[in-house]
Amino acid sequence: MGKTKKQSILAEDMDHCIICGAPNPHVHHVFFGPNRKWSEKYKLTVPLCYLHHNGSNAGVHFNKTLDTALKTMAQRKFEETYPELSFREIFGKSYL
Ligand SMILES: [Zn+2]
Ligand SMILES: [Zn+2]
Known about the structure:
Bound molecules: zinc ion
Strand content: 5-15%
Radius of gyration: 13 Å
Largest sheet: 2 strands, antiparallel
Oligomer: single chain
């Protein structure tokens, strides 16, 4: 993984879990399922350790509260980074 090419607009440090700081995290696509391709395109990914990703009920794929919190944060950052684009049109809904 190159250090020079920015992989995410949501996290500076992609080498540690954004929640607990654990090393060697997974890369989670904040908008997954049919919107995964847009997460990819607009760099809406966050580093999450196994437990905060999909390895426990606290993980984002099972924890609706955490999922929504990340999506709200990602939408804010998206609108700040790409002011010419409509988040709602691309992702089909608003989380704000
Ligand atoms: Zn973690
Ligand atoms: Zn994920």
